[in-house]
Amino acid sequence: MSTRPSPQTPAALPSLGELFPPLGLVVRAGELALRPFADQDLPEYTALIRRPIFEDPDSPQVFPWYRAEPEVRVREALRFQWRLRCGISPESWTLPFGVWAGGRLIGAQDVSAVRFAERRTVTSGSWLTLDAHGNGCGKLMRQAMLVLAFDHLGALRAESAAVIGNAPSYGVSRACGYVDNGTEISTMPGSNEEQQRFLVTPELFRRPDVPVDVEGLTPALREMLGA
């Protein structure tokens, strides 16, 4: 009789979301799904940032990073995504969400904080490809982010900014309940444009008409964010 031990069934490997909690976070609102970019999303992401985002490529509203040649833009965008992951800590973090509509990537929505446990303040930025403008996605993805920030992370204020004269961005902010909060000179590398600042609190927030579901906000992720 053989004494060879029977083969063992290998244990299931943990998911990326279990290994690195931000990658398990998903926010759903209507047809939109927001989740931090994982490596498997990056080919679709880089294809997206080669496409038009701005009607006027010479407008001061154009992000400095978008003005680079496409190959440089793609390379730097990848470095940016990996750098954000490495930098997540309770002292400072950014969650860079991809925004999918009906399963198709249409843009990005980020949310950031510095010393969140003490300040309870988030900032945000976003963009959509040009063909996704004008159908309410910009407003809904901002509202979904604010539900995450206010209802699930415990933020007490959210701030945003847009280059002076950026009417579509102003419109999204005001539709979500933001109020004017002074002006500033952009801190984005490569830009010295004047910006209108906006502020919203849970009391001012104009909530979406559809439910917002948040999955994957685990204790481990809360610890990483200081929430």
From TrEMBL:
GO cellular component, one term: cytoplasm
Residue ranges annotated for the N-acetyltransferase domain, each copy included: 32-178
Top-level taxon in the UniProt lineage: Bacteria
Gene Ontology MF term list: protein N-terminal-serine acetyltransferase activity; protein-N-terminal-alanine acetyltransferase activity
Pfam families, alphabetized: Acetyltransf_3 (PF13302)
Protein name: GNAT family N-acetyltransferase
Native source species: Candidatus Brachybacterium intestinipullorum
Lineage, top ranks: Bacteria, Bacillati, Actinomycetota, Actinomycetes, Micrococcales
